[in-house]
Predict the 3D structure of the following.
Amino acid sequence: MDRGRSAAVVQRVGIPVELHLVVDSRGRPEREQADRGAAVQWAYSDPTDRPTGFGAGTQCISSDTLRQREATGSVRFVIDPAGPSRAGTEFLPPPRPPVLATLRSVTSTPLGTAAGLWAAITADTVSPGRSLMLRSGRWSLPVVLTEQPRATAEAIVHALGNRPHPAIFVVEGARGLPRPWRTGAHAAVEAAFLSL
């Protein structure tokens, strides 16, 4: 977890072996037709995370079965969705920029339900406005700003439990970010920190 005094990393947790597919009152998977023909279905790593108004219940299913169904191209699964958008974690981890790359054009948005349940829990665990999603092209990086990276990272790990999530960088400033992000994210991170 530790990256030194000025940064800590909440390590990525992958999709668990057992998931809980959201089903309707007839036991069929809840689904929404997507723009490109593939239906979207949802599953939770912890069935108690499903909001009461979302489906009638859950059905236990292996993540391998869901991966096989997704491989057909007819359905896409979102794990641990949150909020009205029902966004969540995908089976494939997000791509990471090359180690020696330098990302120049970096933007930031508040971390919350739009990124899924893990992001909502992370945002609720830290002070308001201290959790961000940095973006540069196809790459993204969840970041938490704090003066106590190690203690904050431990609190996030405890709150997330075994729910799947990407690596989350808990930093005092842009210097604690992975090398490709440092230069481009400096202005976004420092502006967010100063606005608190």
Summary: Residues 40 and 76 are 5 Å apart (CA to CA).
